[in-house]
């Protein structure tokens, strides 16, 4: 019998039983039971493996052992549906490349943090991972300042055409990216972009030319400066979920009247360039969205703490007067929020004081969220599409 991996428990049990001269029915039944429940247990354990909450100096050893388990047990690789290589841990490129060499035949969701441009000798394995035919959701971060146009364009060309949900972070000028040629591009259902750039405004047309946006239903745009989104290239009446950042008084998001099926709107007011008055002009269009159910206004906690109540008087009035069937939510962002250090409830109560009219509304709620919680909520809402 060929050497079996210790993790393949049913086969190990079969091997042990084979040494018994006349196996009893009980032993054979045990083998069948083990085969049924162990595979089910392994499928659950390895569906979405996460390596979190570990000390930094233990990370390398734990990641190495996890990779070794997958490498020595190929059947486990086929069980992985979700893989996180970079959202919460500092994976270096060599570590990412070792995982990319594994054949994740059923991978559906991938989070990939690219700390630096990909050397040619490691590019093929990474490209094979992001082009996995079963991939449905990709979150990729290209935040290294050493990323060049050619690197980004080369990665875009290898995105799997089966990707439906894309979350992409990048901080480079995109004006020199050329449109794809002879390439089957992904048809996106949801698109979430975080753009950091030194140029203003940032034109997104070159990057978005690598995707089919005809069936887009959810858009989220966050940026360090205003971006130029090609609203004329998408069907606004198909958009159901919209998440935008107000960076300045000139921030726009297409013709508000054409969002006929918009049911969820989140407006994030940037603490530096954003103005509540810009959000007011957008919210005044709410009566033109017949199926709207939830409107979220996101503010930085410190932004509200140090503001005069008059700064939010108009926003308070407009939010309070929205139709009663719309749930209004005030979201306060604070990545340093820690429920063990102070009462979240007291903090919310203090910041809610800046919205006296809204406090009287029945359909209203408040929330304190860090960045990872905002991402998790976006995914949950998109999954309902």
UniProtKB/TrEMBL annotation:
Listed Gene3D superfamilies: Ribonuclease Inhibitor
Sorted alphabetically, which SUPFAM superfamilies does this protein's record hold?
RNI-like (SSF52047)
Provide the protein name.
Answer: F-box domain-containing protein
Q: Which domain of life is it from?
A: Eukaryota
| Organism listed in the record | Favolaschia claudopus
